[in-house]
Amino acid sequence: MNLPNKLTLSRIFLIPIFIILMSVPFPWGSWQIGETALPISHFISALLFIIAAGTDWVDGYYARKYNLVTNLGKFLDPLADKLLVSAAFIILVEMGVAPAWVVILIISREFAVTGLRLVASGEGIVLAAGNMGKIKTATQMVAIAVLLLHNFPFSYIGFPFGEIMLYISLFFTILSGIDYFIKNWHVMRDSK
């Protein structure tokens, strides 16, 4: 197994640890940040999320640079991304930080695009992620990280940066989904 696939697997293995740290009320105390308390377990969990999200960029970079793209990687990488982002957004809903309707729209877009990719794959067509998809991913990762950190460091000044980023990520999620389907509609139209 090559390095990019190992990094992708590490991302998948970090997800249950991330979920446990966010869900179990560990008695590790908390830091007071502005008006909000940030549990230390949430801080550690947010760091794990950031590390896991970073491995997505690293594994893609190494796979392309050293021609280490494999079928296993093509399967695992998007799966790891969807699992990580979905888990984080669902936890944010449970925490009462993200509205469920926003998360439903974001996750629905991911299912729709994955379905289109499956149809394309059945036709022997590989659909690459576009720039809009990369912007979508970046805004989602920033929104999730800041919200997991209870809006730190912006909570000191009372600025709802995490919430604003959540809606920006929703905008780019919808826009990139529409863009993806418009550019690749021929796959659905021409499929047998």
From TrEMBL:
Name recorded for this polypeptide: CDP-diacylglycerol--glycerol-3-phosphate 3-phosphatidyltransferase
Xref: Pfam families: CDP-OH_P_transf
GO molecular function: CDP-diacylglycerol-glycerol-3-phosphate 3-phosphatidyltransferase activity
Compartments, record wording: Cell membrane
Gene that produces this protein: pgsA
Enzyme Commission designation: 2.7.8.5
The organism's place on the tree of life at top rank: Bacteria
Protein's membrane topology: Multi-pass membrane protein
TM helices/strands, residue ranges: 12-31, 43-63, 83-107, 164-182
NCBIfam families linked: pgsA
Organism, scientific name: Virgibacillus dokdonensis
Keywords assigned by UniProt, alphabetized: Cell membrane, Lipid biosynthesis, Lipid metabolism, Membrane, Phospholipid biosynthesis, Phospholipid metabolism, Transferase, Transmembrane, Transmembrane helix
Keyword hit for Membrane: yes
GO CC list: plasma membrane
Pathway connected to this protein: Phospholipid metabolism; phosphatidylglycerol biosynthesis; phosphatidylglycerol from CDP-diacylglycerol: step 1/2; Lipid metabolism
Its biological purpose: This protein catalyzes the committed step to the synthesis of the acidic phospholipids.
Reactions performed catalytically: a CDP-1,2-diacyl-sn-glycerol + sn-glycerol 3-phosphate = a 1,2-diacyl-sn-glycero-3-phospho-(1'-sn-glycero-3'-phosphate) + CMP + H(+)
Family assignment from sequence similarity: Belongs to the CDP-alcohol phosphatidyltransferase class-I family.
A Gene Ontology BP annotation from the UniProt entry: phosphatidylglycerol biosynthetic process
